[in-house]
Amino acid sequence: MTVSIAEVIELKRTSLLTWRTVGVFLLTSILAACEGLGAALVYRSLLTTRATATATAISTGPIVAFQCANGRFLHTYENGSVACSAAQNATTSETFTMLDVNGALHIATPLSATTLSLTQQAIAIINQAVPDNIFQALSDGTLLSVIAFALPLGVAVARSHHSSMPGPNELLALFRQARNALLLLVTGTLRFTPIAVLFLLTNAMATYTKASSSFASHAGYVVLCFFSVVLMHVGLVLPCVLYLLIRVNPYAYMRQLVPAYVFAFGCSSSMATLPVAVTVIHQTRKVTRSTAQLIMCLGTPTNMNAAGLYHPLMVVFMVYMEGMLSELTTPKLVILFCISLVGSMGTAPVPNAGLIMLLTVWKTVFPTAPLPHSFVYVVAMDFLLGRIRVMVNVNGNMMATRILAHGLDEHSTDEENNYA
After folding, report:
1. pLDDT > 70: percent of the chain
2. Higher per-residue confidence, 271 vs 213
3. MF terms per GO, please (predicted)?
4. Which helix (H) or strand (E) holds 97?
5. Amino acid 190: pLDDT
């Protein structure tokens, strides 16, 4: 994030793109986050409807029945009399009031959840954005704290090098090398993801419960919602943005990008797809190679629309599977929207990094709740959904590149012929 912000500041001094780039990236990210939250709300309403229908279908018989010494159960009659005359399967749904006069009843596990007002939620978010210890925030993975620190640091790194000074910005080069080294470490770690997934799935099967049997139906609904919002974003929203801003046929341009889509789906990595995407954009003869390289390199780590579509849906899915749907209040939905938007600029463009980011999103929205057991189901689905997310990210950057190149590459064909 620090490197990306510093590069944006440097871009302001060296290119005509400047805030147009930031504006286009921000526009696509906001649209994706809005669509993702909308899909999550639709999915939540669908789950609520199914839960209501299931509750209605459940027998309304009594949950608690009082058995007498004669083996019969306590039963009330229409005249108000009470007698121990009912069989267990014949008891009706009378309501009995139990008064704990001696204080003998206690809650086995005290409830630790607290209710906060909207103002308290806002204050908590501000406190989280300004940490007392940035190293503790980095260790805990508190994204808001990390972003709040990375933004001014990136500006400071860019401003530390004046245009009158000879040579490149050495501090920015140092941060770039550190970023590249960390990405290599993350990529190497993620190679062991299949082994970790195997153990997670084994644990899930060993702890199989009745609630796990509903996984297939719920997973089917969340995958259907995700595919629907992806089709809307890729096939409708971004093409409309492209047409409204530069008045060109978006689908004719997208047809030329099919090789990049196929490669992105196969390798499941935005970073690995970057050279292919730049080549495909250059072959459209609408964007120069230098412009494509500049915008795609900047957008790959900072403009990842799939995060805005993916995180809200997966959080709602895990919340429902854990029986916490009532805790997903309006303030938490606002936090979920904001963190999904910010997460689109803070997810590493490497395979399965979205799962790591999802953990951060969960911890930010539900800071006191442990990682839900249903996360293993998300991991199981990510083999397919992760590849779809890479295609969405690559598509968003290629569409943004075409928008930003309009007006700057009017003579792109002549320029490319000069290089030939």
Report:
1. 68
2. 271
3. symporter activity
4. none
5. 58
Indicate whether this model's pTM tops 0.85. Answer: no
3-state secondary structure of 82: strand
Beta 82-86 vs 73-76: how paired, if at all? antiparallel
Could you read off the pLDDT of 227-245 as tens digits, one per residue?
A: 999 999 999 999 999 999 9
What is the helix (H) or strand (E) element at residue 306, kind and residue range? helix 305-321
Burial 294-311 (b: 16+ CB within 10 A, else e): bbbebbbbbbbbbbbbbb
Q: Tell how many helices (H) and how many strands (E) occur in the chain.
A: 18, 2
C-alpha 169: how far from chain center: 34
Q: What share of the chain is helix, strand, coil (3-state, %, to 5)?
A: 70, 0, 30
Tokens, residue 376 = 């293993």
Which residue type does 308 have? G
pLDDT at 37: 92
Q: What was the pLDDT predicted at 244? A: 94
Tell me whether residue 6 is exposed, middle or buried, using C-beta atoms within 10 angstroms of its C-beta: 0 to 12, 13 to 18, 19 or more. Answer: buried
CA distance 227 to 176: 35
Q: Is 74 helix (H, G, I), strand (E, B) or coil?
A: strand
What DSSP character marks residue 67?
A: B
DSSP code string of 138-184: HHHT-HHHHHHHHHHHHHHHHHTS-TTSSS--HHHHHHHHHHHHHHH
pLDDT per residue as tens digits for the range 9-40:
766 544 545 677 888 999 999 999 999 999 99
Residues in the chain: 420
Any idea which fold 16-53+193-419 has?
Proton glutamate symport protein (1.10.3860)
Strand partners, 250: none
